[in-house]
Design brief:
This protein is mostly helical. The chain has seven helices and two strands; from the N terminus they run H-H-H-H-H-H-H-E-E. Strand 1 and strand 2 form a beta hairpin. The longest helix is centred in the C-terminal third of the chain and has 21 residues.
Length: about 160
């Protein structure tokens, strides 16, 4: 008897439609956040969809972000010289998780642990890449996040 396939984090959370709802609502809320509004004051109307596509790929979904935007090196470029602070990073993570709760996204401990793991890792990487002197590795692989395993640029 074969085991049922374990869903990806992307499948577990509801796929691209769920991520599009999450990022759309999140960036609506960003406008009212004193720490985050200035960071995203000049974001394009497409920004929420781009972030949803990036998260989809990281969490085991389609590779549309890499195919259409250039993968992880492109995301790193978006953070260069932004001078992000830890307070802004924490506000970003907290607001995103609050938005996930508001929208009724899965809140089981296994999923939330994996999601928080990625958000912490990715947002800390964004802060590092936003500081003076940060450079883009043109070959940086797209992070792949799963149920308790990590495959990213620094983990192989």
């Amino acid at each position: 008897m074969s085991q049922p396939a374990i869903p990806t984090l992307y499948e577990w959370l509801g796929g691209l439609p769920a991520l599009l709802r999450l990022t759309a609502r999140f960036y609506e809320r960003v406008k009212d956040d004193a720490q985050l509004a200035p960071v995203f004051a000049h974001m394009s109307d497409e920004h929420p969809a781009h972030v949803a596509a990036f998260l989809a790929e990281v969490l085991g979904g389609p590779t549309a972000y890499s195919d259409q935007h250039g993968g992880h090196p492109h995301m790193i470029r978006q953070h260069l010289n932004r001078h992000l602070a830890q307070e802004q990073r924490r506000a970003w993570v907290t607001l995103l998780l609050d938005t996930a709760d508001e929208l009724g996204m899965p809140d089981d401990p296994e999923f939330r642990s994996a999601l928080i793991g990625y958000l912490e890792w990715g947002s800390r990487l964004a802060v590092i890449n936003s500081q003076p002197g940060a450079v883009v590795d043109a070959d940086a692989p797209m992070p792949k996040w799963g149920w308790g395993e990590v495959k990213g640029p620094y983990t192989g």
